[in-house]
Amino acid sequence: MPRMLVAGIGNIFLGDDAFGVEVAKRLLESGVPPEVSVRDFGIRGVHLAYDLLENAYDITVLIDATARGGEPGTVYLIEPEFGAESATADAHSMTPDVVFATLRAIGGNPGRVMIVGCEPATVEEGMGLSAPVEAAIDEAVKLVRELIAKEMEYVRGPSRKD
After folding, report:
1. Res 39: pLDDT
2. pLDDT value at residue 128
């Protein structure tokens, strides 16, 4: 049975950076299929790398605030390609490229990776999401649910009627 990790990442003390954590929380409250693991990693990038190593997921979906120059609250689906270059682990800046470089350095592979990101309005000190990012949570939850349905069917293969 294929497996998927949906990882909420971000710092709850930096405004909209808590987006991934909030989306993961909403997904956990509403439930997901048993082959999908939803986890709130917050700022614990090293833990994410070790979880990926230990569990060998087929698909990894990261949920995070992602500044790409759009309007605050814009939700993005990004399919990054992380190179094999090495990166130095720094507990204060465990970006996805550093997490995946760390994972590869310890012998792991994240499987297929997608990022559901949201354009932040602010990542200044303070708790709570801005209004446009708060409003984007439902859209992100819907997108992640669509990815779960589509990607798990793709990995599993079409159902057969005998």
Report:
1. 92
2. 94
- Report if residue 159 sits inside a domain: no
Q: For residue 31, how many C-alpha atoms fall within 13 Å in the half-sphere facing its CB? A: 2
DSSP class of residue 126? B
Helix, coil or strand: residue 27: helix
User: Which tokens belong to 11?
Assistant: 């710092």
User: Of 117, 92, 121, 107, whose CA–CA distance to 15 is shortest?
Assistant: 121
Domain count, the chain: 1
- CATH code of 76's domain: 3.40.50.1450
pLDDT tens digits along 96-155:
777 878 788 888 888 888 999 999 999 999 999 999 999 999 999 999 999 999 987 765
Alpha-carbon distance of 35 to 56, in angstroms, equals: 12
Which residues have a Cβ under 8 Å from the Cβ of 153 and sit 6 or more positions away?
none
- Does residue 161 belong to any structural domain of this protein? no
In a domain, 88, yes or no: yes
Bridge partner list, 12:
none
Neighbours of 73 (CB within 10 A): 21
